[in-house]
Amino acid sequence: MTKRGMQWLSAAADDPEVCRAAWAGDPRRPVTLSTGRYFDVVVIDQRIGMETFDQLDRQGMPMGPVMVDWGAHQVGFFLPSRSRARFVTMLESEVATPPKYRYLDTGSVVVAPGPMPLSGDRYAWLRAPIRRPEANPSRVAALAAMFVASAALVARADRYGQEQKSLTAAASEAGDSQQGPARA
Fold this sequence. Notes:
Distance between the termini: 70 Å
Largest sheet: 5 strands, antiparallel
Order of helices and strands: HHEEHEEHEEEH
């Protein structure tokens, strides 16, 4: 995370100077930040969130900061503040029943990683803020589209895994019945 990214993120703290001082003493330290003024956060289940992050990254789509909470198995995508209506509209244009998520805006808080978490830390950045992200409406659209696509991909992979287990079990049972009873 850059100094400008740290300044932007710490500005959301109740006391930005105390936040920056805490990070100066321990850059791994996670902090609780208010959402809604400088940014909103879309929180997604880790499996779907990691796939969404990977797809956004691979496709070179616009993306803001992204964090992961390994303990809660969740990924948080930072969006411009007051993006809820646009995000919901974009989701509904993609699919009739959107996948599960939580939208954190005014009145909510998020636990954000410190500027330099280590690999074993509970909170980590997948994409740390390097500066104040621009309020880009295409970030909201890209997140909505990739979130829906990733949820469908993960659901299909789960169904495929279950189908394969069923086919393997059926083949195993068929093989056992063809061999007949065991002889002593």
